[in-house]
Amino acid sequence: MHRKAATWILIAACAAACAWLPAGAQDLASFEKKLTEHRLDNGLTFLIYERSEAPVVSFFTLVNAGSAQEVLGITGLAHMFEHMAFKGTSVIGTTDYKAEQKALAKVDETYHAYDAERRKLGGPDPAKLAALEKAFKDAQEAADKFVVKNEFGEIIDREGGAGLNAFTNTDNTGYMFSLPANKVELWAYLESERFLDPVFREFYKERDVVMEERRLRTESQPVGRLIEQFNLAAFSAHPYHNPVVGYMSDLQSFSREDGVAFHGTYYVPSNIVIAIVGDVKAAQIIPILDKYFGRIPKGPQPQPLRTVEPKQIAEKIIEVPDQSQPIYVEGYHKPANTDQDQAVYDAISDLLSTDRTARLYRSLVRDKKIAAQTGAFAGFPGEKYPNMMLFFVIPSPGHSNEEVQAAIREEIEKLKTTPISDDELKMVKTRAKANLIRGLQSNQGIAMQLAEYKTLHGDWRELFRSVEKIDKVTKDDIQRVAKATFVPTNRTVAMIVNQKAAESTN
Question: What's the predicted TM-score (pTM) here?
Answer without folding.
Answer: 0.92
